Amino acid sequence: MKVEKEYRFLENIDEIRIYNARKKDFYKPTPQEFDIEDIPIQEFINNLPIEIHTFIPYNDGEDFIIQSLGSFTLDRYDSTQEDAKGRLLSKLSPLFYDILHDDLLGVYTRRKPKNIRFVYYDGKKLTKLSTARIVYDMERIFIITNNVDTNINKEEYNEYKGFDEDKSNVIESFSQTGSYYNLNGKYTWSQGIYNIINRPKEEADDFYNIVFDLAIPEDQHIVDKIFNTTNKETTQCNEIIRIMTHDGTVKVLEVNIYSYFDESGIIIRQGLINDITQHHHYETSKPVDFLMDGFKNSTKLALLIEPLNKKHYKFSKGFYYIIEKDYEEYNHSLKIIDKIVEKDAVERIEKLYRGEIKKIYETISYEVDGNPKNKKIIDIYIERFEYNNEVHSLGFLTDITEEIREQNQLKEANELQKILIKEIHHRVKNNLQVLNSFLNLEKRAYRNDPDIIIEHMQTRLTSLALLHEKTYGSKDFKNINLKEYMKDYDEKTGNFMDSPTDIEFETYVDENLHLTIDNITPLLLIIDEITMNSIKHAFPDKSMQDKKITKKILKVDDNTACLIIMDNGVGIEDTKKITKNLGCEIIKSLTKQLSGNIRLIQPEKGMGYELIFPIQTEETE
Prior knowledge:
The protein is an alpha+beta fold. It has 4 domains: 2-146, PAS domain (Beta-Lactamase, 2-Layer Sandwich), CATH 3.30.450; 154-279, PAS domain (Beta-Lactamase); 290-399, Beta-Lactamase, CATH 3.30.450; 406-620, Heat Shock Protein 90, CATH 3.30.565.10. It is 35% helix and 29% strand. The protein contains 18 helices and 24 strands. It has a 7-stranded mixed beta sheet. It has a 5-stranded antiparallel beta sheet with strand order 9-8-12-11-10, with helices on both faces. β10 (235-244) and β11 (250-261) form a beta hairpin. α14 (401-445) runs antiparallel to α15 (450-472), α15 runs antiparallel to α16 and α17 packs antiparallel against α18. Residues 148-175, 281-285 and 617-621 have low confidence and may be disordered.
């Protein structure tokens, strides 16, 4: 079993559809709990051609005590009045309690009647249809139900059914022209209507507007206008709408609706409907839709027709893409501007809505569903104008979020590029000053051997050039991966140093070790000095096999790193000689710049150094 509930705007009634229900779903015998007296007019009620169910509110409407049920319902469930009286609705019929409780409580608390229609299906076949009116009176709730027919007298109904048959027959000779009338909520449809909507008559057609139900979504506001107009006591309305029939055919209809009183004072609503599809010069399209068609593929640009009208508006698909709402679920209201960040823009839109200004053109920040993390930058233009003594509005939305983001990124990139260039120039200047200092020292130490000066300077320049090359394209001087540098360093250093080709350079660098450029510069120069010293002095025997210089750079902890550089050469017996030469003085100076500590180590074969240094130097913090 399945239950559906839907408000039918055209008939102004809540419709409850019940599918594949069985008797036991509705009726569950239960003992009587309350002694309830009969209504004094119960016998009179039992003989009426309609059903009246009577309930007494219990516990402020939390539940309802059954005082009486209609005879049709009792017969349907093979029950008597005594089987139902004095029971709570929630226990005797839990299903009806769930379906009706909110409606019963609403009528009880607001004291206003309400109309409901029950439609029963067995599979897809309609088996029963009844209308009900819920009324509060005499401290009771009455449900007045018609299970068989409407509350129109049958003779009266037949009288109106045959109205102006001669005229009707003439009209019906044209297959695409039809008529209908509505009397006390019941429709009568001519054959021409069924020709227009391309289907045969169905049992429930008397209770539905079978034409307007087919109106396409774009013309639903016209249907609303028709019903708002014809709900007046006497009126006339002429409109053109489009419908889509059950087989998918779109038709253009000319609709003429009249409301008037007959001689008995009964209000009648009569409609004449003509299919003008073949003669309609817009070919099932209106000027508005022609405009909309130009925007149908745009997700960043939206056309807004009547954006200041909460009921009759039309927006292109781009609008729903921009605000990220489903077309079917969106209900237009001024509350949408609550999601605009700029309050001054909100105030100007409110002024436009009140007619205090004629137009706005703003760039706004719009938070989708009020979420600051999903913010869009939108250009909005809306103009208010008068036409035929009526106020209208037209506007556009343009989503410029990506363009603004790209502009900001470009702006930030340009600013960063300027900073980087200044930083690089500053560091090149500092490095040249360091090299100049080393050059002056070596000019005095090696005045008789200029080739050594040139070779050392060439090695240092190579290291600094590599560093400059690597950092020039980088945006981050404080988070440099050392392993990538050392791989290129070994390759280029081996080519420039005057070293035997049979020396193997072996390097291991911790992958997780990232240093600033202020660390890497003195570190590379230290490695240069030690490497040049090993090449010159560690391997005096040219025929020596398996010559190797090994470097390990490890991350000790989050704040400290360690360099171990060794050769497997002849080593040195008197280490005091090393501490007095120029290369050692340069190493000490660079170690001090690095804020580190260095010591000489002597493995079983060869010699080496261990340098402990902070990952972040004081100068770069």
